[in-house]
Structure formats: structure tokens, C-alpha cells
Task: inverse folding
């Protein structure tokens, strides 16, 4: 049952620098529900999840964890766990139901209530502006494939900052633009569900441009803690054969370097530019764009779940690649135990990744904005949720962070994915990532054993920092 040897002693040995931020993360569409409430407009995830055949058993975020009405209870649980911070996203369509133009005050009021509740409870809000839920009205005009969407995103950033800038210190533009661009437009496994390399390349660049334009607006309005969250998957070749080595280079290029390097250095990697051009899907860069994209940041959000081994070969039927021009590359099944997502467990790769990012973004503090694992959890007869695999994953990955810090990586915080079980996108409610279990029939919340372990680590950290 356990994925790795149990390490009950590990929790007590974990020490973090004073001031290290410990939190948990969520995203609007995954937890809020209340999709037709207070003037919210439809997003691409409403459309996608309601399209037959797109999501696991047709699951949608219509109800989710009912966080929109239960946010007070959820903030109380955060305080009970001793979180110092909470990372959440704002639903663009609650604020601007048509994506642009008319502002919906009731949507802004919800986030104001949430933020006030957090502040009153001693939990620092970390706000993400975009976690994948593009207004459908903008999608109807081309979505991220249309350059204008980047400008609309910057306008939206300004509206949210005007409403919440007096009480939210930490601002993040995008969550995982790689997923929005490539899962959304190349493999089609996420909204808007396109399978078009040209669209994927255009979306990539316009998302990054949107990040840069929004960063400008947020800076002008006085933001002092600004970041973006990228998702990284270390890519390894299955063999030393040149074709496999090149396959790993290509996937690493699009997964990791195509997003990191423009943001931190102001240039796309040349090999990636060449790969995309060769695939007939060039990045639509205009003069001055890269300067905008490389807006100064205060921290980089790092999401890490697993690593991947790849080689050239024939892809299984019905499994389109997420990478442009990579129809000849297959990702191997991970060795060893996997989570219910089918993802491997590789904490050592996490340490190496943090050091690698630090080398490519010298001087930029890193914040782990997501890390976690899905398992089949149940509430036991004793009323608890015993999730030794998640606890083990959590401890091992926290240990990886401490190892990276000891080796010189400047990691300032860690947010567990996720606070609550929630709507895992196309995988629906079958995947449970929470530190807190949600019974979807009753919406009852139960802190899992992993959540209790996390709370204990945080308690010791506070104690050590205070003494
Ligand atoms: C990340 C997403 C997050 C969640 C986790 C499991 O890619 O940012 O919303 O789905 O994966």
C-alpha cells in the first residue's frame, strides 16, 4: 500500500529557513462551484466540461466543493492547519463576465470577502489572476490564439488590482501557461480542446505576452511581490541513442525552457524556435514583445509533480502528444509506484529541478506554488482519512526542498496542492489531491492524516522561528 518506505521520523527532522512561507493552493474553477451565481459569465471550462466526451464521466465544476458559499469554513480549516498563506485564483468571468468591458461588482465583492476572511485569520493571500478559465466571450473571438487577448488580460489585472490591491500583497499572473497553451490547443485534453499546432504556438506566445503586459499594469499600481507560476517536468532520454536524446531535448524545450527562458532572460531558446518553425507552427513574436515578457519579477512560482522518460516511437492510439511536432515521441510509463493520476514519484528529481531553475534564473527567489499527489482516499470507520501515501509524498518532497536549499537554491515557500479535494479538470472528481477530504454528497470536510502531519511541521517551524 505504501509507495515507499514509511519515514515517520522525517517530519521531525525537517527544518526550513525562518520566514519560510507554508501554504496550500487551489484554483477557482476547481473548488468554487456556483457557476451561475452573482452574474458570473461562462468560461472555456464551463463549455469544455459540458461537452460530451471531454471529461471523466462528464464531470463538471458546476458544484465542485461549493467553496463560493463555504469559504468561511474553508478559511477556518486553513487557520486550524496553521497555514501562513493561501494561494487561490480569481475567476475572470466573475469580475468581467464578457471578458472585457462591464465589471461585475458582486464577483469582486466575493473575493474581497474571501481576502478579508483570510487576513482576519492570519493567512496571507497569494492571488493568481489566471488559472485556465478564460471567458468564453474571449474564446469566441479567438481566445489565446488572438493577440488581443493578452491586452484584455492586462485590463482584467488592473480591475482586480484596483479592487484588492489595498489588501493583497502577493500577485501572480498566470498559472502554468504550458498547460493552457499546449494541453488546451495541441493535445486538446484541456479547454478549449483544440488540436492545432499553429494555435498552440500562438497561444504560447500570447499567454506570455499577457503575463508581461499584466505585470506592467500590476507594477504601475504598486505591486511589490509579483510572480508567475510555471510547471516543470524534467525530461530524460530512455537511452543514449541520439534520436532519444534529441526527443528529450525537444520535450524539455517546450515543457520547461520555452516558458522559463523568455520570462527570465527575454529570449526564447533557439532550438525551440527552430523546432516550432520546422513544424510549421512559429511563435508569432513581434518587435518589443520579449522585452515586455521579461518584466522584472520578485519570485518564480514552481509547480512540480513528476519527471518523465521519453524516446522516439509510436504513440498509443488516441493519445495525442502535447508537444508541437512531437508525434514521434512517447513518454514511458514511470518505473515504480504511481499515484492514481498514473504519475511517478520522484522527490530526488525535485531537488535537481530547483537547482537547475536557480541556475537559469540567478537571483530570483523561488516559491513552490504546487506539489502534491492523488490517491484513493476514504473516510474510515474511525472518522479519519488515513492517507500514508500522500503523507509520504509530502514529507519526501519537503525534504527535497530542504536539500535544495542546503545546496544553494533560494526557495522561499511551499504550497501544497491542494487544500481540498476538488475538480481535477478532465479527470473530474475521481482524483483526490486534498490535504482535506471532501465528501461530495454532503460537502463535509475531513482533515486527512497528511493534513495533520503538515500542520505539525508548520507548528514546529513556527515554534523554531519564534524561539
Ligand atoms: C496542475 C494544476 C492544478 C492541478 C494539479 C494537479 O497542473 O495547476 O490545477 O490540477 O496540476
Result:
Amino acid at each position: 500500500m505504501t509507495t515507499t518506505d514509511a519515514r515517520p521520523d522525517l517530519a521531525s527532522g525537517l527544518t526550513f529557513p525562518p520566514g519560510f512561507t507554508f501554504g496550500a493552493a487551489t484554483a477557482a474553477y476547481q473548488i468554487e462551484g456556483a457557476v451561475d451565481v452573482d452574474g458570473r459569465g461562462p468560461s472555456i471550462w464551463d463549455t469544455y466540461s459540458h461537452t460530451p466526451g471531454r471529461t471523466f464521466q462528464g464531470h463538471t465544476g458546476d458544484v465542485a466543493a461549493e467553496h463560493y458559499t463555504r469559504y468561511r469554513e474553508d478559511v477556518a480549516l486553513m487557520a486550524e492547519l496553521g497555514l501562513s498563506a493561501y494561494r487561490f485564483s480569481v475567476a475572470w468571468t466573475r469580475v468581467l463576465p464578457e471578458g472585457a468591458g462591464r465589471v461585475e461588482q458582486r464577483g469582486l465583492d466575493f473575493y474581497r470577502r474571501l481576502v478579508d476572511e483570510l487576513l482576519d485569520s492570519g493567512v496571507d493571500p497569494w492571488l493568481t489572476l489566471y488559472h485556465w478559465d478564460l471567458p468564453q466571450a474571449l474564446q469566441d473571438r479567438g481566445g489565446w490564439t488572438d493577440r488581443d487577448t493578452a491586452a484584455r488580460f492586462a485590463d482584467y489585472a488592473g480591475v482586480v488590482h484596483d479592487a484588492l490591491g489595498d489588501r493583497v500583497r502577493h500577485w501572480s499572473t498566470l498559472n502554468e501557461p504550458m498547460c493552457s497553451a499546449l494541453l488546451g490547443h495541441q493535445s486538446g485534453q484541456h479547454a478549449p480542446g483544440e488540436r492545432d499546432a499553429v494555435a498552440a504556438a500562438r497561444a504560447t506566445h500570447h499567454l506570455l505576452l499577457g503575463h508581461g503586459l499584466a505585470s506592467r499594469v500590476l507594477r504601475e499600481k504598486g505591486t511589490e511581490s509579483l510572480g508567475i507560476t510555471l510547471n516543470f517536468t524534467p525530461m530524460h532520454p530512455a537511452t543514449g541513442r541520439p534520436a532519444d536524446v534529441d526527443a528529450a531535448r525537444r520535450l524539455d524545450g517546450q515543457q520547461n525552457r520555452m516558458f522559463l527562458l523568455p520570462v527570465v532572460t527575454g529570449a526564447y531558446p533557439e532550438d525551440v524556435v527552430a523546432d516550432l518553425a520546422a513544424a510549421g507552427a512559429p511563435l508569432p513574436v513581434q518587435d518589443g514583445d520579449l522585452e515586455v515578457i521579461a518584466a522584472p519579477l520578485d519570485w518564480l512560482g514552481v509547480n512540480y509533480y513528476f519527471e518523465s522518460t521519453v524516446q522516439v516511437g509510436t504513440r498509443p492510439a488516441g493519445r495525442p502528444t502535447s508537444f508541437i511536432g512531437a508525434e514521434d515521441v512517447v513518454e514511458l510509463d514511470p518505473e515504480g509506484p504511481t499515484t492514481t493520476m498514473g504519475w511517478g514519484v520522484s522527490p530526488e528529481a525535485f531537488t535537481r529541478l530547483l537547482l537547475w531553475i536557480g541556475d537559469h534564473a540567478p537571483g530570483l527567489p523561488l516559491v513552490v506554488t504546487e506539489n502534491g499527489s492523488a490517491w484513493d482516499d476514504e473516510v474510515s470507520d474511525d472518522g479519519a482519512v488515513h492517507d500514508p501515501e500522500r503523507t509520504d509524498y509530502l514529507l519526501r518532497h519537503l525534504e527535497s526542498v530542504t536539500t535544495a536549499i542546503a545546496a544553494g537554491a533560494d526557495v522561499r515557500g511551499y504550497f501544497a496542492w491542494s487544500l481540498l479535494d476538488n475538480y481535477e479538470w478532465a479527470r473530474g472528481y475521481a482524483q483526490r489531491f486534498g490535504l482535506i477530504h471532501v465528501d461530495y454528497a454532503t460537502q463535509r470536510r475531513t482533515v486527512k492524516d497528511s493534513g495533520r502531519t503538515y500542520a505539525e511541521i508548520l507548528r514546529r517551524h513556527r515554534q523554531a522561528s519564534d524561539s
